[in-house]
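Per-record layout

source: Agromyces tardus
name: DNA ligase (ATP)
length: 858
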Amino acid sequence: MVDVDGRRLRLTSLDKVMYPETGMTKGEVIAYAAEIAPTMLPHVAGRPITRKRWVNGVGTPDDPGQAFFEKHLDEHAPDWIRRGVQHHSDGDKSYPIAGDRATLVWLAQMGAIELHVPQWRFDPQGHPANPDRMVFDLDPGEGVSLAQCAEVALLVREILTAMGLEAVPVTSGSKGIHLYAALDGAQTSEQVSAVAHELAKALEADHPELIVSSMRKTLRTGKVLIDWSQNNGKKTTIAPYSLRGRFRPTVAAPRTWEELADPGLRQLEADEVLALVAERGDPMAAVTAASAGGPLATYLSMRTPGATPEPMPASTWGAPATGEPRFVIQEHHARRLHYDLRLERDGVLKSWAVPKGVPDDAGTNHLAVQTEDHPMEYLAFEGTIPAGEYGAGGMTVWDTGTYEVEKFRDDEVIATLTGRVGGPLGRVRIALIRTGERDGKAQWLLHRMKDQQPAGPPARVEEGAAAVRIEEGAPAVRVEEGAPRPSRDRTAAAELPEEPPWAAGLETTPSSAPRPAREGAAPRPARSVRRAPGIPVPDGEVPKPMLATAGTVGMLARGDWALEFKWDGIRVVARVDDGAVRLVSRNGNDLTAAYPELAALPRVLRADAVVDGEIVALDERGRPDFGLLQQRMNLTKPREIAAAAASVPVVLHLFDVLELAGTPTIDEPYSLRRERLERLVRLRDDVPVDLPDVVAGTPERALEEARERGLEGLVAKRAASPYRPGARSDDWVKLKLSRTQEVVIGGYRRGEGTRTGRIRSLLVGVPDEHGGLRYAGRVGSGFRERDLERLLERLRPLETDAPPFEVPAIDASDAVWVRPELVGEIEFGEWTRTGVARHPRWRGLRPDKSPHEILLEP
């Protein structure tokens, strides 16, 4: 897992060799993309990208790798990647647009070695604009050297200079040379193609022994083809600074004319290009700076330098993103007071005028009118725009900060904004939804997502004769001094009575569930669980749990982190309401009936609440044992559940609180939620619920302690982080001691010998880079006989004729295929070079997980 300018990306197969002749790995391809991004982005920003992908590398001359072109961007791609739609005869296609380094890194992760772009960009309305540059592809025929291509490049340059155009050469990384010249955007692609064609024909007439302009291959031998056709609006050219899918990692490298005159001119490779750019910069920067259009062209056209204090950017193309995305909300006292919301995107600030500002609650939508893109310097702009100038009036920064984007498309934006500490906005999740167009301006709705706390001062609520104040950020209701109490007591955790009123008169039923011993204390004997028979399950919403990302100790070097042990069990979120309990797994399954002993959870909570935790089964030494927990999973018959509860007791480890006394706490920082949880929980020996301590010491020492205690690892949580239901966030980082992987069962091999009529081994898969599944190996150990019987019962109804992923012939010869619907978990040594788990051992089914939820662990 890596952080790329505020975007969290999962990188896989980093040691896969993509260029066998040089040994360049996928990790090095990704590193090149990340390092060249600031130089490359201006040349591809705003343009639809066609990708040429070599998922398994380029291969060798004797065994070349398979490649394929890809235009449409699949739905599984991150929502924060900008998209542009092109109309084709076979339907509309959504292309990626690279405006930031994270997008280039993601494309490299997907095996997109070559990036091809047209000579035009999308305009602010999302339509193809006129081309902003002209290109000539000088393609050498058989027997022609690169030096001869350079000779033709000089001839083309002479004509372009006479036309008032400055050309920049690019050694293509393949065989020839490309020439680029900036245009003013006044001509269509058809017009530019026609001019380029005439130029090529004129040079062919003057130099028939050296140049050809016809596309007929039979005419190219011994000559240089001037390919003018790539100026067609439907065609693309390899992007400047893109790698090539040759057998060596060559690059489409912009060059100076001095370099082109070098007798030793040759194609350059990735490391050489990086060194050359660091030494002398980008020769093609002038083309982008001189080209017409750009997202800031409208902004500049509406302002007169010197007449307004507003910032004037040097380029119409903005600046590539280099950090976490930022936002600003400005209070604008123009003809009418309104607020301007601006979000950093593709090197500029995407802007909306919002007359009424951000809504205070989810019940109100506010109009937002999209305006012209603004330069990044506007993030801090405050001042008075003089009368007579566009937007005249005073402008101040209402709030500013950073934001996390979930979706950023031409018709929908979903993001969480975090303002300044103590600022008026706080942390709010918003949605911008495009509704249409009026007077040439895009109309949007600004919506505040309903899981947010209202902005502004504390709200007053009348409850009978009692005046009740909900303090901002407080988890409970406090009755004002002198006012009568409401009929239902929902006081703060610290003020709650010792015994909730509903606990009186509960029946006592025996239970053998042990309490986990505190460190250094003797184990406690099993006691009884008090349970109220017939208490209904609460029907309130149970949020999905927040999920952690896989990481390393090094990721915790900066920031304030809290450390918790990682428990090897089943994640649940529990709602407690008036003595009723509902347990829900992370994939939405109701587990309440499966763990009857946890009906006593209300007895250890001082108030109604929604809490997050993990159900674990403990071995004889008090350590979590997932294999033991398997005996409690997948049971539905009351008699089986009761028998398993008596023989395999469980404990619910609590570690977070999402709601307390009817008030959400998810927007509070982890440190405060932890304090509230500790005040909320009152441990009892006769209730199988525990509140594990936060782990003291450094991450390295805590991880070693986890190893000594036989635990799975650690979970590190940022002290200031909110709780994000259903989201996987790098605010929580898991560090595992053993390698485990959730897998999808795609088939099984028939048993032999003592396993005749049963399962010999399972054939399992994991997510691949295309959103599907790839084979991860066969698993034949770690099963108990009872496991094999139950597995066979579950798999038989799923049998099918087709394998869900490609399996080697030796493993597929006697396979029985099943629909990929069941998720399990394996423990293994390492991933082999072919992507198969080495020495896998079955740990059990994961009914709490769905196939689409699993991630490939690094």
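summary: The first helix runs from residue 26 to 44. The chain is about 15% helix and 30% strand.
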